[in-house]
Every structure is written in structure tokens, then in C-alpha cells.
Design a protein that fits this description.
The chain is α/β, with parallel strands linked by helices. The protein has a single domain, classed as Rossmann fold, CATH 3.40.50.360. It is about 40% helix and about 20% strand. The strands form two sheets. It has a five-stranded parallel β-sheet with strand order 2-1-3-6-7, with helices on both faces. It has a two-stranded antiparallel ribbon with strand order 4-5.
């Protein structure tokens, strides 16, 4: 049974443009696929473990072929559970607002937690990294309120989409589609762009 997992990275709930666009996507996806499972993971719900000294030590222990300490074993169980929650879906919807030209720190935390050897990636000393998340696809909603293509450097730089889609590809997810809503704050009426973005989200969801 196919499962769509919506991972939301905005803390603004119903006030979030990215979350609202994702809700439109989910509604259209549900209408087109009533037999499929849809789940939601709000990264701000407190369920995401930290990635601190013990976790970093455990990761390096894997690379070095060393045995975990008791503390490392405990933290790795939380990491493994987080990955399994993520890996249980074959389709992903990410709603990602732009923060300071990049992604929200909670999404970076998620990436750092799940991106582990033997889980998200394999590594060969001669061949380098290989992504392990095969047979999956992702849709990503990107929003920003100042940055927009063609607005010039004074309106910011996009380290949001290039970074996140590089991570998806690195992890082995190459079937990626996106919806972008980037209204200019100086524009009096962003409603047309909003309507177009929601229409695009609905169309993509129908065949996702």
C-alpha cells in the first residue's frame, strides 16, 4: 500500500503559506487516491531527536567499525526510529518556507538525524556516496516572501531549493517535483500568484 508522508517545516500552522499549499496538495491527492494512506509529520511537534555529541560519536563509531557505548546505543535507537518513520512512506510532500536564504533549522535537524550510514546512504572509499532511498518520489512546496527569481541580490539568494533538492538526490530520490510561491512584498496583490500556486499543487497531486 502506497503511503504519502507530508513533512512540514513551518511553525506557523494555518498561517503558513507553505502549509496551506501543502494542504491543497493533500486534498487533491486524497480525492485522486482514496485508497492510499496519508500521514503528516509536523517537525515542530517535539518528536524529532537532537543530534548532539553522543549521536555524532555513534556515527563516527560506525565509520570506524567500533562498538557503541551504552549512551550511543540509546541515542541510536531514537535515530533509527526516526528514520523508520520517514522510510515507511514511498511518497513525500515537504512544505518548506525560506528562512534566511535557506531552510528552517528544524528541517536541517531532520536531515542531520536521518542521514546516517546504512540508512540514507552507503559509502565506498573508492566510489564515494550512494543514496539508498530508491523507489521513492518527492513533491516540495517552496515559499519565500522577499526572495524571488530575477529580483536582484538585494532581495536575497536562494540556498533553499538547491540545498534541499541536492540532499534529496544525494539520498537517492531523483523523482522530484516542486511548487513555488514567492510573492514580492512590494506587490500590492499577491493573490494571482497564490491562486496559480494552489492550482499547480492540485494538478501535480492528481498524478503524484
Amino acid at each position: 500500500m502506497s503511503t504519502l508522508l507530508h513533512i512540514s517545516a513551518s511553525p506557523r500552522g494555518a498561517a503558513s503559506e507553505s502549509r496551506t499549499l501543502a494542504d491543497t496538495f493533500v486534498g487533491a491527492y486524497r480525492d485522486a487516491n482514496p485508497d492510499r494512506t496519508i500521514t503528516h509529520w509536523d517537525l515542530w511537534d517535539g518528536s524529532l531527536p537532537t543530534f548532539g555529541p553522543e549521536a555524532a560519536g555513534a556515527k563516527m563509531a560506525i565509520f570506524g567499525g567500533e562498538t557503541f557505548t551504552a549512551a550511543q546505543t540509546a541515542v541510536w535507537q531514537a535515530i533509527d526510529a526516526t528514520f523508520n518513520r520517514f522510510n515507511g512512506a514511498d511518497r513525500y510532500l515537504f512544505s518548506v518556507p525560506m528562512w534566511n536564504a535557506g531552510v528552517p533549522y528544524i528541517l536541517k535537524q531532520f536531515i542531520d538525524v536521518v542521514s546516517q550510514p546504512g540508512l540514507v546512504f552507503g559509502f565506498d572509499p573508492n566510489e564515494g556516496y550512494r543514496g539508498l532511498l530508491h523507489g521513492k518520489k518527492a513533491a516540495v512546496v517552496y515559499t519565500s516572501s522577499v526572495y524571488g527569481e530575477g529580483r536582484g541580490p538585494a532581495f536575497g539568494t536562494d540556498f533553499q531549493k538547491p540545498y534541499f533538492e541536492d540532499w534529496l538526490t544525494w539520498a537517492g530520490i531523483t523523482d522530484i517535483t516542486s511548487v513555488e510561491f514567492r510573492p514580492n512584498l512590494a506587490t500590492a496583490d499577491p493573490d494571482e500568484g497564490r491562486r496559480n500556486a494552489h492550482a499547480q499543487a492540485r494538478e501535480i497531486a492528481k498524478t503524484f
